[in-house]
């Protein structure tokens, strides 16, 4: 039989009320008494059913998701997954709200984080802009015992508890290998479209991409990165201008803004064959795969990322361990032949 709180009370020689205070980390228990209870817990092998305890107490977890405000199909999809999580709130005992901040704006993100420190939610998930001020704000919240999860884009060297996203260096390396293999013996230049080098996921994708091209495809030259701010109009203008260079034979879009990319490709590349690798499966990139404007899509599951962030924040709020294998976000590769 599994040990119970009654067994702990008997072994430690204390009341059930004292055991409850120790289990819930409440004050009012002498140090020597707390040690007796904790010793009994260890020796009996007691494992608390936190979910059942929280259900009995009617506990709800207030959680906040901080997202960039942008005309970005992937972020629209991420928002939709959070709305689905809100629909499940009563069953999962969560109270979720979203806050949007201007994309790639560290000061705006810091202001929101500082405001949340006064509200005291059970956990915060954020799409991070990798800047020193943001890192310092996150570290302050962690030291104040706020569970923090970075979502989609991580935060270099911070104290955040967990990152819910793909391995972006591996994603960049995968994109380079696909592009190099698709191009075969051709020689030429590669245009790279990013959102901003302020976000770690874009920097890491570029790092992985550049490393594999340099190591294994020396006949391909990477041009200076175009930063489209994940804005379709800006991306369209930058890519259209770049495609005036007849030496470009491949394009890697490592961020968002793919609607603008696709429009530029359809307008400017009709007279030559380009190999194009992009990120995130949306309605627009799906159509571009089908009509051969894009050759391959690397995709992260936004729904898995949102569900993972919620599980981790709840676990951290309860002082429970995270099951790392369950929270690993896979990288999918889609061609027109295996679209879901």
TrEMBL record:
One of its GO terms (molecular function) is DNA binding. Transmembrane segments: none annotated. CDD domains: HTH_LacI (cd01392), PBP1_sugar_binding (cd06307). SMART domains: HTH_LACI. Keywords: DNA-binding, Transcription, Transcription regulation. Pfam families: LacI, Peripla_BP_4. InterPro entries: HTH_LacI (IPR000843), Lambda_DNA-bd_dom_sf (IPR010982), Peripla_BP_I (IPR028082), SBP_2_dom (IPR025997). It comes from the Bacteria. The keyword Transcription regulation applies. Residues 3-57 form the HTH lacI-type domain. The keyword Membrane does not apply. PANTHER family: LACI-RELATED TRANSCRIPTIONAL REPRESSOR, TRANSCRIPTIONAL REGULATORY PROTEIN. This is LacI family DNA-binding transcriptional regulator. It comes from Rhizobium ruizarguesonis.
């Amino acid at each position: 039989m599994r040990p119970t709180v009654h067994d702990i009370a008997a072994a430690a020689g204390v009341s059930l009320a004292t055991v409850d205070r120790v289990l819930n980390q409440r004050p009012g228990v002498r140090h020597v008494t707390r040690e007796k209870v904790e010793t009994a817990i260890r020796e009996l092998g007691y494992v608390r059913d936190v979910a059942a305890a929280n259900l009995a107490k009617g506990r709800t977890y207030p959680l906040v998701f901080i997202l960039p405000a942008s005309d970005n199909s992937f972020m629209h999809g991420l928002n939709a997954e959070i709305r689905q999580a809100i629909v499940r709130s009563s069953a999962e005992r969560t109270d979720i709200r979203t806050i949007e901040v201007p994309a790639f704006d560290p000061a705006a993100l810091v202001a929101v984080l500082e405001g949340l420190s006064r509200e005291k939610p059970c956990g915060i998930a954020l799409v991070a802009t990798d800047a020193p001020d943001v890192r310092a704000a996150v570290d302050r919240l962690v030291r104040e015992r706020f569970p923090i999860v970075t979502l989609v884009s991580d935060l270099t060297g911070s104290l955040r508890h967990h990152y819910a996203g793909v391995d972006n260096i591996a994603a960049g390396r995968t994109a380079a290998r696909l592009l190099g293999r698709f191009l075969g013996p051709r020689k030429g230049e590669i245009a790279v479209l990013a959102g901003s080098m302020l976000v770690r996921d874009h920097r890491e994708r570029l790092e992985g991409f550049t490393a594999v091209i340099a190591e294994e495809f020396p006949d391909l030259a990477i041009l200076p990165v175009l930063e489209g701010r994940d804005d379709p109009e800006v991306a369209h203008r930058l890519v259209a201008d770049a495609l005036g260079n007849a030496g470009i034979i491949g394009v890697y879009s490592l961020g968002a803004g793919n609607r603008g990319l696709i429009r530029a490709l359809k307008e400017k590349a009709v007279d030559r064959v380009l190999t194009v690798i992009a990120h995130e499966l949306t309605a627009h990139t799906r159509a571009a795969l089908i009509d051969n404007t894009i050759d391959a899509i690397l995709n992260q599951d936004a729904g898995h990322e949102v569900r993972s962030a919620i599980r981790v924040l709840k676990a951290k709020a309860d002082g429970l361990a995270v099951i790392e294998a369950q929270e690993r976000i896979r990288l999918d590769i889609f061609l027109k032949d295996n679209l879901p």
